[in-house]
Design brief:
The complex is a heterotrimer.
Chain A (H helix, E strand, L loop, with lengths): L2 H18 L12 H31 L15 H30 L6 E8 L2 E6 L33 E3 L3 E5 L4 E7 L4 E4 L8 E2 L5 E5 L5 E7 L11 E7 L1 H9 L2 E2 H33 L1
Parallel strand pairs in A: 1-5, 4-10
Antiparallel strand pairs in A: 1-2, 2-3, 3-11, 5-8, 6-7, 6-9, 9-10
Helix pairs in contact in A: 1-2, 2-3
Chain B lengths: L13 H9 L11 H29 L8 H4 L2 E3 L2 E3 L2 H25 L3 H31 L12 H34 L1 H4 L13 H26 L1
Antiparallel strand pairs in B: 1-2
Helix pairs in contact in B: 2-6, 2-8, 4-5, 4-8, 5-6, 6-8
Chain C lengths: L15 H8 L6 H4 L18 H6 L4 H31 L9 H37 L7 H20 L29 H30 L12 H32 L10 E2 L2 E2 L7 H34 L7 H14 L17 H27 L8 H24 L1 H7 L3 H31 L5 H28 L18 H31 L69
Antiparallel strand pairs in C: 1-2
Helix pairs in contact in C: 4-5, 4-6, 4-16, 5-7, 5-8, 5-9, 5-14, 6-7, 7-8, 8-9, 8-10, 9-11, 9-12, 9-14, 10-11, 11-12, 12-14, 12-15, 14-15, 15-16
The chains are: A alpha+beta, B mainly alpha, C mainly alpha.
Chain lengths: 291, 236, 615
């Protein structure tokens, strides 16, 4: 078989695969439809160039394959053609770049009314924190983290007291409300990624990174870690439940705040102390007795 | 040194002439010894190494949790009851720069085939370098005795110790290698290897006084790098 | 020892008649238009080995060193290939290999990546082809520093030894991913975070040191040791590609060296260059205040030029192969040269496009997306010129040409997916998914591999004096090309689904179940493609002794490496006299010429009646 035919079949196969593929992106569930559109645009332009270049190559292979009596053309360069091609390519590239930069501008400008969500990652799990009634998250530090303060909130920060703590790898979000994800990690790099939301960003220990999106479809989604973080990387999953406003508020009111946690711990500590006190009392009694 | 005379070749004027000369056949740098060209490119590569070190240092210094220590306190010397900031380092820098001068003279005398002068000047350079390394060893031991370690630092950010020991250590290694080669070259000069064109031990290349200039390039580079390290660590 | 030097008796300076002939009377005689400036460089004295050890082991002949590099890089590459089989076994058929734990999987991923990028492709293109071809193509007797060149290879040898030793140390090789991102690289929780990463860093440092020695040789040989008449714009594009790639390597490897050194210190001395405050198993570690992103910058300042260190030699070589086998000059030679140089220069300003979602300041995205897409322009020009070279050529559809065509298809495919990933917005959903894996395997795995294979079939007659078997070659090509394409083309769609890379297994995720079948298919294809590579090894062994003898210049090429007095060329390459170059290496099918090629050494007086271009 002529090699050109096989190359042609490869290109044809690629196009057919693209048309009939059962594997394509998951249904989008956030505001980043623009990303999908940019990909589609890039796909058409890029795919077109790929097919054009390959078909031209295949044509040459058919038309100009070796014949003993033929001589190839001698043409070292064609300045005009090269100029046209350069400018056409530049134009095409600019056309792809412009929408990309436009949407990136949206990506880095977080809306003012976005709900701040603190996502804390470690090897290998997630937990979340939402601002309380004051709408502000308290500041945190890795060294503060202990059993009594699982998020490492600075105790002298008044904003932190009413923070809502969600010690679970699943978080609920409200539809059509922008969310600013504030990522932090206590050990290595992680990445909080929901394929349906399209957006992602690494969590870097030592700094807080962010990105934003607006979930717009009610449903449950899986969170994947998208930055290699050690042997447990593949198992580091979480979840997001996107709910309507009423469901979300109901869920939110059931969550524990940092204040509640402290109070609970104080009660426990108080009880512990009481027990100790009683013990001492008994002990003292016995001592008295002996005397 | 004057421009080399190349048979059948003239340098052409202007930008176009420069492009033409650069692209001419056989050599790009006319009359430049292979070893010398190699050293220049090696130094360019080495420049990137030190740049990476110093840029990392700037980034590291900017992002530490604890404040950076005050260099004039850390590097100060206590002489005769008075605290003199940067005394040692001033002497070190002076010695190293002076050794660059003696090196330049050695190259000059080498090309004049003045074997004795050349040899003594290389030896002087080597001793200058050795003094530098010795003083650096003193400074290191002083800092270590004060509790500064690569992983901790009683004066402030631990990264101070990390970067200081790493970068001055890397530079000191350069100086040390330079000193070793200076001693070897001094020996070879006194023995007259460069006059006779005796082959080297390993590379089996013929000896030539140009080798001293090549080593000189390296030595000047090491000095220049020190100026930057000095500015970044001691004056910032 | 000095008895071993040939120059006592052998190569004297250029014969005086050639030199003096041009200087006198300029009256349009044949000797006048053939005038080439006299030699500037003195004859190089070469050390000729006599014993087996000095001839074949510690040899100073660049050609032997090139073959040594080639063989050792191939050996490491085969190890990388076997690792990829094991990975694909796990991905396609989870649990099929009983011993495969997540630790092993990640170790194999890491070693596969590092081996293929650094120890296979870089060493093969620059160490292998660079050493063999540079002195021959520019008309030098050897590399300018043969001893340093030999040391370079043996440093590489030790680097490979240290790398492979990490398979046998406690904890095994590092499993941190080939990018070695701290902090996880040196923390428990990552396989091989003890000995493994240490040996990896040491091996990289040795590789860089060894490569620097080789790289200085390549550069000075190309810049300062060309033969008479060989101007920069008469060099074959292979030399241009290797030259630019070496410049990139000399400037990019320092960043890797510094990164590896700092990582070693973080590991051994517990410094905190890259280590912030870390809470591990409820305890705060002794680290604090370092910046993990700093390492990523250092790594990618090396890592992106590294892509072009692999790609540029491939560009150069494929240009030459296409030109020779379509019997036509490379279209737009000057554009090709400038494109190589511009791509090389730009590659230092795009590194952070690997870090769009790394947590660096997102505003950098604008700058790096723009620079990245600008690189697409010279790259596209190269592609156009390759296919325009085929246009109205006289294309020999032999195995070499097939590999070149395969290169064009895979490279254009991978290049275009590169535009996806370079454009910052599009990168966000696709980064860290299988789309990235498919992209870089296509563009810097398969495409350069196609060139390597084409180059092997092309230059094997020069190295051994015999042709490789064409039929076996065709089987090798079609299995490799079709197989590799059907591995990586569908893999892009896994990325669209959102399957993250570096997942040991993930069939419990709801939307990935549909990908099971595809993963099985990809794995099957990977096994077949890998196995097909042994056809080449069989072919080489078989034809080394019994292949069809090639003789002089079997492909009717123009460039100097085919014009040596003996095939295969001997140490010193050119016998008594160095060649004198009169033209560029692409004078194919010149109108009016008797044959369809005019070699670089053909003097103008012999082709007076042709319409040859002045170069």
């Amino acid at each position: 078989m002529h090699p050109g035919i096989i190359f042609f079949l490869v290109i044809l196969g690629s196009v057919l695969f693209h048309i009939f593929t059962p594997w394509y992106w998951t249904d989008i569930a956030s505001n980043w439809g623009g990303m999908d559109d940019t990909i589609t645009l890039t796909f058409w332009v890029g795919g077109g160039v790929f097919i054009a270049v390959c078909l031209f190559m295949i044509y040459c292979v058919f038309k100009f394959s070796y014949k003993k009596d033929r001589k190839a053309e001698y043409q070292p360069e064609d300045k005009k053609l090269e100029k046209i091609l350069t400018w056409a390519t530049t134009l095409g590239v600019a056309a792809l770049l412009a929408p990309g930069l436009f949407i990136w501008n949206q990506y880095v400008s977080v809306p003012k009314n976005a709900l701040h969500v603190d996502v804390m990652a470690w090897q290998w799990g997630w937990q979340y924190r939402l601002p309380g009634e004051d709408g502000k998250l308290g500041t945190t530090q890795v060294i503060n983290i202990n059993d009594n303060n699982p998020f490492g909130i600075n105790l002298d920060d008044p904003n932190g007291k009413d923070d809502v703590l969600i010690q679970s790898d699943v978080i609920n979000l409200e539809t059509n409300r922008p969310v600013k994800i504030l990522l932090r990690s206590v050990d290595v790099l992680h990445n909080w990624y929901v394929p349906q939301f399209r957006a992602k960003m690494d969590a870097v220990p030592g700094i807080v990174t962010y990105y934003w999106f607006e979930p717009n479809k009610v449903g449950e989604y899986e969170v994947l870690c998208a930055e290699y973080c050690g042997v447990g990387h593949y198992a580091m999953r979480g979840g997001v439940e996107v709910q309507s406003k009423e469901d979300y508020n109901k869920w939110l009111s059931e969550q524990e705040t940092f204040k509640d946690l402290i109070a609970k711990q104080e009660i426990m500590e108080l009880e512990n102390k009481k027990i100790v006190k009683n013990n001492n009392f008994l002990l003292n009694k016995e001592i008295y007795k002996e005397e | 040194m004057s421009d080399p005379k190349i048979e059948g070749f003239e340098l052409k004027p202007g930008f176009k002439g420069m492009a033409k000369d650069t692209g001419s056949d056989q050599t790009m740098f006319k009359g430049v010894h292979w070893g010398k060209a190699m050293m220049w490119i090696f130094l360019l590569s080495d420049t990137f190494i030190f740049s990476c070190f110093l840029i990392s240092y700037m980034k590291g210094r900017g992002s530490t949790l604890i404040d950076w220590p005050n260099p004039s306190e850390v590097f100060g010397l206590h002489v005769g009851g008075v605290d003199v900031p940067l005394l040692l380092i001033a002497i070190m820098t002076f010695v190293l720069i002076t050794s660059s001068g003696t090196m330049a003279l050695a190259v000059k005398y080498g090309y004049e085939k003045n074997r004795k002068m050349c040899g003594w000047l290389i030896l002087a350079t080597a001793i200058g370098g050795l003094t530098f390394v010795g003083m650096q060893a003193f400074e290191w031991s002083k800092l270590i005795s004060e509790g500064v370690r690569p992983w901790e630092n009683p004066f402030g950010a631990p990264q101070f110790g990390s970067f200081f020991f790493m970068i001055t250590g890397f530079h000191g290694t350069h100086v040390t290698f330079g000193v070793i080669f200076l001693f070897i070259y001094a020996y070879k000069t006194f023995k007259g290897h460069y006059d006779e064109g005796k082959r080297g031990w390993f590379t089996t290349m013929k000896g030539d006084y140009v080798e001293i200039e090549i080593l000189g390039l390296y030595w000047h580079f090491v000095d220049l790098v020190w100026v930057f390290i000095f500015a970044f660590f001691y004056l910032w | 020892m000095s008895d071993d030097y040939e120059n006592k008796t052998g190569y004297q300076a250029q014969s005086s008649e050639t030199i003096s002939s041009g200087g006198s009377g300029r009256s349009g005689t044949a000797s006048d238009i053939d005038y080439v400036r006299p030699a500037e460089n003195a004859e190089q004295d070469l050390y000729h080995g006599h014993s087996f050890i000095t001839k074949w082991v510690f040899c100073q002949d660049a050609k032997v060193i090139g073959v040594q590099y080639f063989l050792l890089a191939t050996f490491t590459g085969v190890i990388g290939l076997i690792l990829s089989w094991l990975m694909r076994l796990q991905l396609g058929f989870p649990g099929a290999a009983g011993f495969m734990t997540a630790e092993h999987y990640y170790q194999f991923v890491t070693m596969h990546g590092m081996i293929m990028v650094v120890y296979f492709l870089t060493a093969l293109f620059l160490g292998g082809f660079g050493n063999y071809l540079i002195p021959l193509m520019v008309g030098a007797r050897d590399m300018v520093f043969p001893y340093l060149n030999m040391v370079s290879f043996w440093m590489f040898f030790i680097a490979v030894g240290v790398l492979l030793a990490s398979f046998f140390v406690p904890g095994g090789p590092t499993g941190a991913g080939w990018t070695l991102y701290p902090p996880q690289t040196i923390l428990e929780g990552t396989p091989g975070s003890g000995w493994g990463i240490l040996l990896m860093c040491i091996s990289l440092i040795l590789f860089v040191a060894g490569f620097t020695m080789g790289g200085l040789n390549y550069l000075i040989t190309i810049l300062q040791a060309r033969t008479r008449g060989m101007t920069l714009m008469r060099m074959p594009l292979t030399v241009w590609g290797i030259f630019t790639a070496t410049v990139l390597a000399m400037l990019a490897f320092p960043a890797l060296l510094v990164g590896a050194l700092m990582m070693t210190l973080d590991k051994v001395l517990a410094t905190s260059f890259f280590m912030p405050t870390i809470l591990k198993a409820g305890e705060v570690l002794e680290y604090g205040g370092g910046s993990p992103i700093l390492f990523q910058h250092l790594f990618w300042f090396f890592g992106h030029p590294e892509v072009y260190i692999v790609a540029l030699p491939a560009f150069g070589i494929v240009s030459d192969l296409i030109s020779v086998h379509s019997r036509k000059n490379i279209f737009g030679y000057r554009m090709m040269v400038w494109a190589i140089v511009v791509i090389g220069a730009l590659s230092f300003f795009v590194w952070a496009h690997h870090m769009y979602v790394s947590g660096m300041n997102p505003w950098f995205g604008f700058f790096f997306a723009t620079t990245t897409l600008i690189i697409a322009i010279p790259t596209a020009m190269k592609v156009y010129n390759w296919i325009l070279t085929l246009w109205r050529g006289n294309i020999r559809l032999n195995v070499v040409m097939l590999w070149c065509l395969g290169f064009i298809v895979t490279f254009v495919n991978g290049g275009i997916t590169g535009i996806f990933l370079g454009n910052v917005t599009v990168d966000v959903p696709l980064s860290d998914t299988y789309f990235v894996v498919a992209h870089f395997h296509m563009v810097m795995g398969i495409a350069p591999l196609m060139v390597i294979m084409g180059a092997v079939y092309h230059w094997f007659p020069l190295v051994s004096g015999r042709f490789l078997n064409e039929t076996l070659g065709k089987w090798h090509f079609w299995i490799t090309f079709l197989g590799a394409y059907s591995i990586y083309f569908p893999m892009h769609y896994l990325g669209f689904i959102g399957v993250p890379r570096r997942y040991f297994e993930m069939y419990d995720s709801p939307y990935v179940t549909s990908a099971v079948g595809m993963n099985e298919f990809i794995s099957m294809a990977a096994f077949i493609v890998g196995a097909a590579q042994f056809i080449l090894i069989y072919n080489i062994i078989k034809t080394l002794k019994t292949g069809k003898p090639a003789g002089h210049n079997p492909w009717q090429a123009n460039s100097l490496e085919w014009l040596t007095p003996s095939v295969p060329p001997e140490h010193g390459n050119w016998g008594e006299k160095l060649p004198v170059v009169h033209r560029w290496p692409y004078d194919f099918s010149v109108p009016g010429a008797k044959e369809d090629f005019i070699t670089q050494t053909t003097p103008p007086s012999e082709v007076i009646e042709t319409e040859v271009e002045k170069t």
